[in-house]
Design a protein that fits this description.
It holds the Pfam family PGAP1. The protein is α/β, with parallel strands linked by helices. It is built from 14 helices and 10 strands. It has a 10-stranded mixed sheet with strand order 2-10-3-4-5-6-7-8-1-9, with helices on both faces. The longest helix is centred in the first third of the chain and has 33 residues.
Length: 475
């Protein structure tokens, strides 16, 4: 099955008051593209006619008004028409692409649509808080009916429907469970139980050991960092990659690539750790075994205070990156955070010091689990992909998702995020280019240290609960 993703870029300059003229311009571009396509078709017919008549008289259809049979043979006329047809069709494709980029890059909606959407969201929020069970069952029934009628139904597809409504429902459910403190408050209340579950299932002793192989190539762009993240997810579970880049003046910078949840019994990147990482307080987040594992790897790698660090993570790895970037109890300088499919909207990252580039998709569920959209502020950019079952029309040109399954699935795997970011790169977004430049400047220099660390949990009676005390882990 072919699936496609259409990216939208949300940044501090996304909002536009009056969009009517811009929408009209986009439609005008599409109309001009259609006219050019019709002309290209006419020239193509002329070329075919000329080639058919080449052995007879100097007859020429009316479309080749610019060519004189007396001045050039029919073969030349046919070649000219073919070249002109191709040129006109390329211009038409360019105009369609330009119109598509204009509409998508600006994320345009009419005022009436926006007002209606806000009213419906407020109604859903109130219903979710007052009648959480009934509202949840109602949303489930609607999603199930739509998924069963899609012809590609699956349980994962059911959970991937209506991400906006899911987000609102989870936010209000979190408020119910935590007296108005939302999902982070609910996570903090559940954290103790999650820790006890992790102790029983995995043990409470954490080990972080160097691995002999250097798993990833150099990454000087955001696209390359996401490609490395996809590669990391296919390697041995619980592996953290750390790379050092050295400039000509001897200054160092670092890229730490962090995996997502793997669910393995001996891995600190398990399911219970997600609850700790989404908790409201920094102290609760710091007890997460996975965060402690990453900080331990950073310490062993020799990262020094003041050296700029980029943290790149998928799913739980992105939450770890956001948690470390928003924490005060470590000595590291986090200059850039890159996340893919991570619910990090509620982490208090200071974007005057740390740039944030987030990639999400609308059918993945995971990025909506914190019940809130990422903030729109300076240096925080969100690329959000809309997953489609097919290419919707000739005027829209989404990017194909490689290796998609034949039935619906949660669009949480890295192939969806890399395709979404690739689609976003086609948009004329100065903010996205600024983030690319910031990341490239951070990783400027020669990759001279390429490290990997294996992180494991095990049961050792003499180290009971040592991982439950937050540490000021530094060089």
């Amino acid at each position: 099955m072919s699936l496609y993703t259409s990216a939208e870029v949300f940044a501090s300059s996304t909002l536009i008051e009056n969009t009517d003229d811009l929408i009209s311009s986009a439609h005008l571009l599409w109309n001009h593209a259609d006219e050019l396509s019709r002309c290209a078709h006419a020239y193509g017919q002329s070329a075919f006619f000329a080639s058919q008549q080449m052995s007879s008289s100097y007859a020429c259809p009316e479309h080749i008004y610019a060519m004189s049979p007396a001045a050039a043979p029919l073969s030349e006329a046919a070649r000219h028409c073919e070249q002109t047809a191709l040129l006109l069709e390329s211009y038409a494709a360019y105009l369609r692409d330009l119109a598509d980029k204009l509409m998508r890059a600006l994320h345009l909606y009419s005022h009436a649509e926006a007002q209606t959407s806000r009213w419906m969201q407020s109604l859903l929020a109130a219903s979710s808080y007052v009648f959480p069970v009934q509202t949840g069952l109602g949303l489930a029934a609607v999603s199930a009916a739509e998924e069963l009628s899609s012809g590609k139904a699956s349980l994962a597809g059911f959970f991937g429907r209506h991400p906006r409504e899911q987000q609102i429902y989870l936010d209000q459910l979190g408020n119910r469970l935590s007296n108005g403190r939302g999902v982070p408050g609910a996570a903090e209340r559940l954290a103790k139980g999650a820790e006890e579950l992790a102790d029983v299932w995995q043990g409470n002793s954490l080990t972080v050991t160097p691995m002999p192989a250097a798993p990833l190539p150099a990454a000087s762009t955001l696209s390359q960092s996401l490609a490395n993240l996809e590669t990391l997810s296919s390697l041995k579970h619980g592996t953290v990659s750390i790379q050092r880049y050295t400039r000509a003046n001897g200054m160092h910078s670092w890229v730490v690539t962090i995996p997502g949840t793997d669910g393995q019994k001996d891995s600190p990147f398990g399911w219970p750790q997600n609850v700790d990482l989404m908790a409201r307080s920094e102290r609760a987040r710091a007890t997460a075994d996975s965060q402690r594992a990453v900080l331990s790897a950073m310490q062993q790698a020799g990262i020094q205070p003041g050296e700029p660090v980029a943290l790149v993570g998928h799913s739980q790895g992105g939450i770890i990156a956001a948690s470390i970037a928003s924490a005060s109890q470590h000595p590291y300088t986090i200059s850039h955070v890159v996340t893919a499919g991570s619910p990090i909207a509620r982490h208090p990252i200071d974007t005057s010091k740390t740039w944030v580039t987030s990639v999400e998709t609308d059918r993945e569920l995971v990025s909506s689990l914190d019940g809130k959209d990422n903030p729109i502020r300076e240096h925080w950019l969100t690329v959000r992909g809309r997953i489609r079952d097919s290419q919707p029309s000739a005027s829209l040109q989404p990017t194909r998702v490689p290796n998609a399954k034949d039935t619906h699935e949660l669009s949480h795997a890295m192939n969806y995020h890399t395709a979404t970011f690739r689609d976003a790169k086609r948009l004329p977004s100065p903010e996205l280019e600024a983030h690319e430049t910031h990341f490239s400047e951070l990783t400027e220099g020669r990759l001279d240290r390429n490290l990997a660390y294996e992180c494991r949990m095990n049961k050792e009676p003499d180290s009971e609960h040592t991982h439950r005390t937050p540490e000021n882990t530094g060089p």
